[in-house]
Structures are given as structure tokens and as C-alpha cells.
UniProtKB/TrEMBL annotation:
UniProt cross-references to SUPFAM superfamilies, sorted A to Z: beta-beta-alpha zinc fingers
Organism: Sander lucioperca (Pike-perch)
Gene3D superfamilies in the record: Classic Zinc Finger (3.30.160.60), P-loop containing nucleotide triphosphate hydrolases (3.40.50.300)
Keyword Chaperone annotated: no
Biased segments, Basic and acidic residues type: 231-241
Protein name per its UniProtKB record: tRNA isopentenyltransferase 1
Length: 241
């Protein structure tokens, strides 16, 4: 991006659309094209006073480059997380399959990314099954979407194992946990045995149900599968996630 003229493009865009806003102190990097990665990161460099030395400008330029790299990596992680959650972990109705391509070696881009992608699109457009297998939806067969869990501490009924696990990790639940411990000094976290490690397949998570537990203190869980109702307390309950 830099060798293709990024700095010159940013400087031209700044002069035409943002310089006057900076002078009026009305620039906004949270709306429209101004929030694009690669523009706001160079704000200090683009607005450097004309009296700045070349060394000072180079320092600001390098600072902008590092900020650009950090923002790009953060955005890539966010995209990957969104794809995993939306398409692989919690797929809804009419969600298309996802294919994975190896982008590790950029020098082999056409061989490992472009050509396989074109082959997949060509097969799908013809109604044929691509030779490349799609990524399997993670743990779809192990999740119990009909299970019911009751958190007495938060006064909530949670439906679904995945949603229950998310609730136990939520800020609101942990707030009630801390409040419970303050009101009950006898509640000692150290008395709760640690949850056993997850299995090799990573599909079972143990949740402590002790009233002073580190995960769900004060919670009474009702785990309902199909027509069965089971209430358990003071023991570890395996939750499929």
C-alpha cells in the first residue's frame, strides 16, 4: 500500500476534504470515509506544522505506519471472529457454507487462493459440488439449543447451552457474583474445586453450581432437554458449548 502511493493519496485527500475541517476543529474520524483504516492513523503526520523538521515528519510518518498495521490486524481479527460466530459457531437459517483457503504464502496467491476460489465459484454456479470440502460447522451436533438454565442470582431463564455459557461470562452476571460475595463473607472462592479441563474435542465445559462458585454462584440451574426437567445444585454440571 505504501509503495503504491498511499501517502500521496492521503495527503491529496486531506488537502481536498479534511484540511479545512482540521482548521475549524470539526474533523470527525468516526463517520463516512473518514473512519477508513489508513486515514486517521496519519492525522499527526498530515497536520504537522510546516516548520517541522524532516526528522520530525519522518517520525510521525513511521508512527502512522505502525498505527496502520495495528488497526489492520485488529480489523482482520474482528472479521475472522465475526465469520466464525456468524457462519461456523452459531449459524442461522439460509447461511451459506464457508470454504477455507490457505493464504499463508503470499507468493503462491494464485495457486493457493485465487484458482481454488474460482473453481469453487465455477462449481457452485453450475450446481455442482466443489472438489474442495467446506469448513464443518463447529460442534453443531453437540449443542443442545433446547436446554433451559435458570440463574437465580440474575433472575433469568436462559435457553440453550451456548447462550448459558455466554451469560455466565457476561459482565452483568459477574457483577451479581461480586455483590453476592460482599453480602456473604462466608462465601470463599478458594473452597470451590476448579473445573476439570475441557475434553480434547473442546466440546464440554464444566460449570460449578456451588452457591459460592467462581462461575455461577447463587445460580440454580434447571437443565431441560426435550421433556425432562432436572434441577441440580452444589455440583458440577457439564454444559455443551
Amino acid at each position: 500500500m505504501l509503495s503504491a502511493g498511499l501517502i500521496e493519496e492521503l495527503r491529496d485527500f486531506h488537502v481536498r476534504y479534511n484540511q479545512q475541517k482540521v482548521q475549524d476543529d470539526s474533523q470527525n474520524y468516526q463517520q463516512g470515509i473518514f473512519q477508513s483504516i489508513g486515514f486517521k492513523e496519519f492525522h499527526d503526520y498530515l497536520t504537522a506544522p510546516g516548520s517541522s523538521t524532516q526528522q520530525e515528519k519522518d517520525t510521525l510518518r513511521d508512527k502512522g505506519i505502525e498505527a496502520l498495521k495495528i488497526a489492520t490486524r485488529r480489523y482482520a481479527r474482528k472479521q475472522n471472529k465475526w465469520v466464525r460466530n456468524r457462519f461456523l459457531k452459531r449459524p442461522g437459517d439460509n447461511v451459506p457454507v464457508v470454504y477455507g483457503l490457505d493464504v499463508t504464502d503470499v507468493s503462491r496467491w494464485e495457486e493457493t487462493v485465487l484458482n481454488p476460489a474460482l473453481q469453487i465459484l465455477d462449481s457452485l454456479s453450475k450446481g455442482e459440488e466443489p472438489t474442495i470440502q467446506p469448513i464443518r460447522v463447529q460442534e453443531a451436533e453437540q449443542r443442545n439449543k433446547r436446554s433451559h438454565h435458570t440463574c437465580d442470582l440474575c433472575d433469568k431463564v436462559i435457553i440453550g447451552d451456548l447462550e448459558w455459557t455466554a451469560h455466565l461470562r457476561s459482565k452483568k452476571h459477574h457483577y451479581h457474583v461480586r455483590k453476592k460475595r460482599k453480602l456473604d463473607p462466608a462465601c470463599d472462592q478458594s473452597q470451590v474445586p476448579p473445573a476439570p479441563p475441557a475434553s480434547a474435542a473442546g466440546i464440554v465445559e464444566s460449570v460449578s453450581e456451588d452457591s459460592c462458585g467462581t462461575v455461577a454462584p447463587g445460580c440454580t440451574e434447571t437443565s431441560q432437554e426435550s421433556s425432562q426437567d432436572t434441577r441440580t445444585t452444589d455440583k458440577e454440571v457439564p454444559v455443551t458449548v
